[in-house]
Amino acid sequence: MLNINHLSVTYHNSEFATKAVNDVSLAISQSEIVGLVGESGSGKTTIANSILDLLPEKTEIAGKTFFDGKELSKRTIQTIRGKDISYISQNFYTSLDKNIRVGKQFDLILRSNTTLNRKARKEKICQIMKELNFQNVEEVLSQYPFQLSGGMLQRVIIAMAIVLRPKILIADEPTSAIDSMSKNSLLTLLAGLKEKFDLGILIISHDLRIIKDYADTLVVLYQGEVMEKGKNSNIYNSPRHPYTKMLLESKPDFKKKVLREKKLLRVKQKCVFSPYCPECNGVCNSDIKAVIEENYYCKCNVCKY
């Protein structure tokens, strides 16, 4: 349903130009969960924002994005944002107005996007919340956002995101501010929604271990470039890229520290991960020959076959 082809994004300001995303391609199909994984600053949120045209004005974008076979433009994105493609922000605590009751904010979504009358809107709200296993629907709708726990608030936001029955749901770090038990519960909920509504879901996370049990496809990102992507079971059981291996071994802090050049678009080096790579050798100074197989990609010259 959603295809991103050779996306590159460069941020500009009065002093610097920073290339945040470089030649990224990925696809999200119906009833599929794609996990986009990488450390902070790797370009994950930039990719999500580019899909829905939420990037700052002074941003250079190259590449094309297709939804249901049609190329997205600024005009078409306006018609599908929130309806066909829905987005859950990383900072969900600020997603809702703390001074307005949950039910009223829920109702506003339907009033703005449908012709349903008040009674029909209320029925639809109650229906979607029951489908998300809310036991005390009326109580939750009558409360203010700040009265809800983190896990409950996140579930409310998910309900709002899918009430219009989108085809694609983008969840940016949905587990970042909740406890471990709530994380598993939330991801189980998303997996259930995938099956129930044939949703295509993009889950953005910095922790590969958290989403490994839920994603169908994994895309591993580093400094704006795809290091490895493929079926979850293949990458998790037999990772080939050194960066993926380090993520799985829980080694987020590298011994070498190399500052990223911001006065240039990008430091001229063949592989962006080579300064940190434990397997780096002479072949890393040559042009990268990516391993491309059916449903698999690895951008590495020492990638094991």
What does this structure look like?
The protein is of the alpha/beta class and 305 residues long. It has 2 domains: 2-84 and 166-298, P-loop containing nucleotide triphosphate hydrolases (Rossmann fold); 99-165. It contains 10 helices and 12 strands. An 8-stranded mixed beta sheet has the order 6-7-8-3-9-10-12-11, sandwiched between helices. Strand 11 and strand 12 form a beta hairpin. Helix 3 crosses helix 4 (118-131). The longest helix is centred in the middle third of the chain and has 18 residues, at 180-197. The radius of gyration is 20 Å and the shape is globular. The two termini are 30 Å apart.
Silhouette? globular
| Spatial arrangement of strands, main beta sheet | 6-7-8-3-9-10-12-11
Q: Could you give the order of the helices and strands?
A: EEEHEEHEHHHHEHEHEEHHEE
What fold name stands as the CATH topology of the largest domain?
A: Rossmann fold
Task: Look at the structure and name the CATH superfamily of the largest domain.
Answer: P-loop containing nucleotide triphosphate hydrolases
Low-confidence stretches: 252-269
User: What top-tier CATH class of the largest domain fits best?
Assistant: Alpha Beta
Sheet with the most strands, sense and barrel status:
8 strands, mixed
Please tell me the overall pLDDT: 86
Radius of gyration: 20 Å
Considering DSSP H and I runs of 4 or more, what fraction of the residues is helical? 25-40%
Multimerization state: single chain
How much of the polypeptide forms β-strand, as a percent range? Answer: 15-25%
